[in-house]
Amino acid sequence: MTDDRARRLAKLKQAFESGNLDEDTYQAAVAALGGAQTEVIGSGAVAQGAGAVAAGAFEDDKAKQGLALPSDQQPLYLIPVGHPR
Known about the structure:
single chain; mainly alpha; two-stranded antiparallel sheet
């Protein structure tokens, strides 16, 4: 994630936690940022002859454990990158 997107996401999280942003708006903003990042990663994969797809439905705990994420982080999207068969 770019520094600018990371800052915007942190600002959204802060606004949500302080009660200045409703949950639906927060979730929509997170989804939009994730979608934009997926496009960047997907374009880079295609440029290298590979493909990528966003996965938003997965077992959060298993993904968190497999990625060795700290306890204060939560996976939002998985973006597998690879070569089509």
